[in-house]
């Protein structure tokens, strides 16, 4: 497959033995972290220093696991480009049509742009990421090609899951289903879908075809469900019927699920019970202006609810940031979380719960977990979420990739095309200069 993205960064093994000394866990415990072959080998107070071990002094910083972005659109972003003037109409179809026209006429480069934003995520502490990529009958697999190249360029330090996403729906444009099959065969990890009733107009046919494609390729599903109220509940019920009938428990994510925030409690709770039974997870971006799945009720019913940004600086929205501490703060604000222990629930939406929901393995701060670590100057986790301090250190796969808010070493220019300006040279100022 051809690509506009860059040659890959040099692949090198992580340091054989490294210790992050003098750091604090979220519970206040002071510990050292011993790392070997990219994994946490030991974590505890006053660990022994082995001969030849490199020591990194954490200087009493707060230790966090690498962050997880559960839902974004790397291929769409304008990150680092000139400001896009948004004059699009109010309907979902207005945004879809406007974006297709703009991308076709502007020559938007999904490879270069996804690489710029992925590196910004890495710099700010995200080491695992799920991105939806448009599979379009006009562009074919061009956007996918670019994001596949970004995944390859950052393969040593960023786990990047790709969702093959039919942004215009599955049924409305002839050839979309075939393109989705080609995308899954080419390397996409997950099958996407969009509003089977309001976009496709035939939720039974749309869902039947979606599940058939997923089963042929043995891939999980992540569906955008913006449909409100009773319409969304009807579609969600149809989806859950298929999960049960086809044995796809634990293999489906419903993104947005606005309907669950607007239903009467009895009807909502019946759906939550089915979601929990079938292990169907929910993704929220915690938008301020539409209903959202209820966090407390989801947890009470055993439904997994995790978080993500959605689009960042694209034709759909001027908002968004590759800082998952900011997203945790926005989740906390949307759900009225103020106590320190409640803020920890918001962080879980962009860390452990998100990793589990997306199927990212060996995650966390425990022996055997992959050494994906973030150090920040904060007294507590709640302060880190609210103040969002500069990342003192970011480690991925046992490699130090960023220090004091900037990428370091081989990752300064990882994936940058020969002769081009580094996509990461001004990450710290990108939001202020566009």
Automatic annotation (TrEMBL):
One of its GO terms (molecular function) is hydrolase activity, acting on carbon-nitrogen (but not peptide) bonds, in cyclic amidines. The keyword Hydrolase applies. PANTHER family: BLL3847 PROTEIN (PTHR32027:SF9), CYTOSINE DEAMINASE (PTHR32027). Residues 59-401 form the Amidohydrolase domain. The keyword Hydrolase applies. InterPro entries: Amidohydro_3, Metal-dep_hydrolase_composite, Metal_Hydrolase, Metallo-hydrolase_Enzymes. NCBIfam families: PRK05985.1. Keywords: Hydrolase. This is Amidohydrolase family protein.
């Amino acid at each position: 497959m051809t690509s506009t993205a860059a040659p890959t960064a040099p692949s090198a093994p992580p340091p054989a033995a490294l210790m992050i000394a003098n750091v604090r866990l979220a519970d206040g415990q002071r510990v050292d972290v011993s790392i070997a072959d990219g994994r946490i080998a030991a974590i505890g107070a006053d660990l022994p220093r082995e001969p030849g071990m490199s020591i990194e002094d954490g200087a009493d910083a707060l230790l966090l696991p690498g962050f997880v972005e559960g839902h974004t659109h790397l291929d769409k972003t304008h990150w680092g480009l000139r400001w896009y003037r948004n004059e699009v109409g109010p309907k979902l179809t207005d945004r879809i049509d406007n974006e297709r026209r703009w991308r076709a006429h502007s020559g938007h480069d999904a490879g270069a742009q996804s690489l710029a934003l992925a590196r910004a995520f890495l710099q700010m502490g995200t080491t695992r990421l799920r991105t939806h990529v448009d599979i379009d009958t006009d562009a074919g697999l061009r956007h996918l090609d670019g994001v596949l190249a970004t995944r390859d360029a950052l393969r040593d330090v960023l786990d990047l899951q790709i969702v093959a996403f039919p942004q215009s729906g599955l049924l409305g444009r002839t050839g979309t289903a075939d393109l989705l099959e080609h995308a899954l065969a080419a390397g996409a990890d997950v099958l996407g879908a969009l509003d089977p009733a309001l976009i496709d107009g035939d939720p039974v046919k749309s869902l039947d075809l979606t599940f058939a494609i997923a089963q042929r390729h043995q891939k999980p599903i992540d569906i955008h469900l913006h449909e409100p109220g009773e319409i969304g509940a009807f579609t969600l019920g149809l989806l859950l019927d298929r999960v049960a009938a086809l044995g796809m428990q634990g293999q489906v994510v419903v993104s947005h699920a606005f309907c669950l925030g607007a239903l009467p409690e009895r009807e909502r709770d019946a759906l939550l019970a089915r979601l929990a039974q079938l292990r169907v997870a929910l993704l929220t971006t915690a938008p301020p202006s539409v209903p959202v799945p209820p966090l407390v009720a989801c947890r009470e019913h055993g439904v997994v609810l995790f978080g993500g940004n959605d689009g960042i600086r694209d034709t759909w929205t001027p908002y968004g940031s590759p800082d998952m501490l900011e997203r945790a703060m926005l989740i906390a604000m949307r759900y009225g979380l103020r106590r320190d222990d409640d803020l920890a629930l918001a962080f879980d939406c962009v860390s452990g719960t998100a990793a589990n929901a997306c199927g990212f393995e060996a995650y966390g701060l425990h022996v055997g977990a992959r050494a994906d670590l973030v150090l920040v100057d904060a007294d507590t986790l709640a302060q880190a979420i609210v103040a969002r301090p500069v990342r003192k250190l970011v480690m991925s796969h046992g490699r130090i990739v960023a220090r004091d808010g900037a990428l370091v070493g081989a990752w300064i220019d990882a994936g940058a095309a020969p002769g081009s300006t580094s996509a990461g040279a001004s990450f710290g100022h990108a939001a202020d200069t566009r």
